[in-house]
Amino acid sequence: MFVKSMISPFSFYKLSVAGTFVRSCRSFTGSSVSRAAAACTTARHRRPNCIEEVYTTLTWTRALSAIEARQNLPRVFQQQRNYTSTTDRIGTSDLLGANTMNGSNKKARIETSGDGDAAKFEEVYHALVNEIITEDEANPEIADAAKRFRKMLDYNVPHGKRNRGLTVINAFRHLAQPDQLTDDNVLKAMVMGWCVEWLQAYFLIADDIMDQSKTRRGQPCWFRQPDIGMDAINDSFYVEACIYKFLKRHIRGEPYYADVLELFHETTYQTVVGQSLDLITSPESNRDLNRFTQQRYDAIVKWKTAFYSFYLPVALAMYMVGIEDEESHRNAKTILLTMGHFFQVQDDYLDCYGDPSVIGKIGTDIEENKCGWLVVQALQRVTPQQRLIIEENYGFDDASKVSKIKELYRELDITSVYKAYEEKSYQDLMQLIENHSGSLPKEMFVAYAKRIYKRQK
Predict the structure, then answer these.
(1) Which of 36, 118, 133, 383 is the most exposed place for a label (fewest CB within 10 A)?
(2) What mean pLDDT do residues 269-297 have?
(3) CA-wise closest residue to 342 among 216, 210, 432
(4) Residue 74, Ramachandran bin (φ over 0: left; ψ between -120 and 50: alpha; else beta)
């Protein structure tokens, strides 16, 4: 009754007003917001009783959200938006714990340092799975599929390091103004963080099939499980589809909803392009070392890894807090794509020299004929006789051939080459952060760089 008593004076005439808002909201600033508010006031006098038509309309929700992003409107407008945007999704109290919310829009109890985020992030995962699976399990037509998907999600999604997902939350805390650090916004950051992790799982399920990998995150790849096989292809489709259901349920009332959707779609496109470059450069049936150039390696890393692993999590947080300008995103992308390259070189080194019990997988880049950093560096340093060793042994699933490649790496002292690269790249990255942070907090980027520097997994 309180909500309705607050919003009744602001009923609007049919849905044409909301439609007009949708066409204009992306460019509303200053006086145009005032004109829109005036139009609303006129409409409410013409038809004061159309409350249900308007409040159940998603168009109106999105329009108000977009306007609020440009200029603060009276509190009553925000209450109107909340009336519709929370009716069909799990609320903050459900996902962050019922005792964390004593009123709407309450400040998050977790401080800006983010202490406790990892534990809450774990809880949100289980809540999201229950949210989507329980609904389908209740439908007898698809209950069997839902039970399978629950098992599949639990096997593939939550067992990584979660760096990408937690980065969304961490970046949000770095970028948000104090009044943006609410329980509801922390929840949204966690939901989007898990969407990034879901995207990662989607890529990895498919990538493991294409590469015929053996293990992932310390366990056999999903497609190698009994009775799974190529059914894993459809499972990967399901994992991706979940992303957009979660975004629709939890983010669609926000002004950044369209930006987030576009970002996920664009990032998926970029990663698919990068995967294609990887596959056509390293076909096991047609080995050609001439393809293994530094330029091609850099392109694969940028498109297959750096966009989704480094730029995507930070860009999501930027949109959340209203940072939309091209310069800020260009600066962030410059730094984060470079960081992503640094990360992938480390990954290639660990694939060969890392401890499988630590990195969670058995490295197979040599067997899979991958255009990896180590072989690219080796090809730049070999004699004609040493190149012949690579041609005869690289890209074969044969332990003796793999040993010959690793012995050649030792002869070329690739480990020292890597150590020198790691040091120089880290210093270059620090300088890049200094030069390109712009209005974004330098300490955020420095923290991410330090997190991956000299990593062992």
Answers:
(1) 383
(2) 94
(3) 432
(4) beta
